[in-house]
Design goal:
Blueprint lengths: L7 H13 L7 E4 L12 H17 L11 H9 L15 H8 L3 H11 L8 H11 L5 E4 L5 H7 L9 E3 L16 E4 L21 H13 L2 E4 L6 H7 L14 E5 L7 H10 L3 E5 L3 H10 L10 H5 L22 H6 L2
Parallel strand pairs: 1-2, 1-5, 2-4, 3-4, 5-6, 6-7
Helix pairs in contact: 1-11, 2-3, 2-4, 6-7, 6-11
Length: 344
């Protein structure tokens, strides 16, 4: 990296400053699988193991043993026989798209397996709850995600009715109707959703993002600082599409890309290439994790609420009419219920 790594309290300070929004710019979040780890969602490498056990149990053993009783030596030996499998323990995660493409067929089987392994068995983690609070307080508006687990929408729904509407973009092919650059709460599913058979996880599906989707979100990318959490940066669809060169002759992402990594986590070559291209517009932040970082950031944002200004003040008029005034020392027993029932 050309620039020094920002870590510890300094990294938290950078994130807190971005979310305070003193310059009236709303940061975009880009979340990857690492954000859902505490919720019990498997990483790409662990998902490879789970898919291999499920498929081996159902198709090789014909259900004679459940997936949890399939031995590693069995599914590993079987996968090593496949021409498309990368035989390298350090690159196990890179096999995920190939497993989806070659083993999770037909579509209904793919949907069932993906929804099963992406179930948040530990419940929605604290980080997602904090992020939902930030949305409720107007500190964050749009969240991009490469995931297709339910952690993010579940966290946002738990804040309703304070969050009036949750816009979801790209749930299925051509599903862009809810996109709005001024939306107060929207999720952009970069890889679709498994429920609509639209998830893009197979090898042939992660090379490019939908061009219309990119055209819609590109103005937001230009106008916003981008905070990346839990994402390795391995997919060409995101790294070449979302973060591809768009402003010829000048530095892209003028409001900055803030890429979060865990301690001792290697930087993917695609991320390194992005950092080299963006130069001063790229910042690498070292954090303990998605949940841990947001818990620390939230302490620096206590009392910060973008909706506490004019909107909140207008909710209580300075002058109340006679009918709106509070009458002290009375209760519902003092009401004339006959008059109330006849009132229109």
């Amino acid at each position: 990296m050309d620039r020094a790594l920002v870590s510890g309290a300094d990294a938290i300070s950078v994130l807190t400053t971005l979310l305070r929004g003193e310059d009236e710019r709303w940061p975009l979040f880009l979340l990857g699988a690492g954000a859902s780890f505490r919720s019990g969602i498997p990483t790409a490498a662990e998902a490879v193991k789970q898919i291999a056990r499920i498929v081996y149990s159902e198709r090789k053993l014909l259900g004679a043993r459940p997936p949890e009783r399939v031995r590693p030596t069995e599914w590993e030996s079987w996968l090593r026989e496949q021409k498309w499998f990368i035989v390298d323990a350090d690159r196990l995660a890179e096999n995920f798209p190939a497993l989806v493409e070659n083993l999770l067929i037909p579509a209904e089987f793919r949907k069932r397996v993906l929804l099963d392994i992406m179930n948040p068995v530990n419940g929605v983690s604290a980080g997602y709850g904090i992020l939902a609070d930030f949305v409720m307080r107007g500190l964050v508006r749009t969240i991009l995600t490469t995931n297709f687990d339910p952690c993010l929408p579940d966290a946002l729904r738990s804040r309703q009715p304070h969050i009036k509407h949750i816009g979801e973009v790209n749930r299925g092919p051509g599903d862009f109707d809810e996109f709005d650059v001024f939306s107060k709460c929207q999720i952009v599913w970069l890889h679709g959703k498994a429920e609509q058979y639209s998830d893009k996880n197979a090898a042939g599906e992660i090379s490019v993002l939908d061009e219309k989707l990119l055209q819609l979100i590109r103005p937001l990318l230009r106008a916003s600082p981008i905070i990346v959490m839990g994402y390795r940066g391995a997919e060409p669809s995101v790294m070449e599409g979302l973060f591809g060169q768009s402003d010829a002759g000048r530095l892209d992402f003028r409001n900055g890309v803030y890429w979060c990594v865990r301690p001792n986590q290697p930087v993917h070559p695609r991320v390194q290439a992005l950092a080299d291209r963006l130069r001063s517009n790229f910042t690498l932040l070292e954090i303990d994790g998605f949940d841990e970082a947001l818990q620390k950031v939230s302490k620096g944002l206590i009392g910060k609420d973008r909706f506490s200004g004019s909107q909140a003040r207008s909710a209580v008029p300075a002058h109340r009419s006679f009918d709106e005034q509070i009458v002290p020392g009375v209760s519902t027993d003092d009401l004339d219920l006959d008059l109330v029932s006849r009132a229109e």
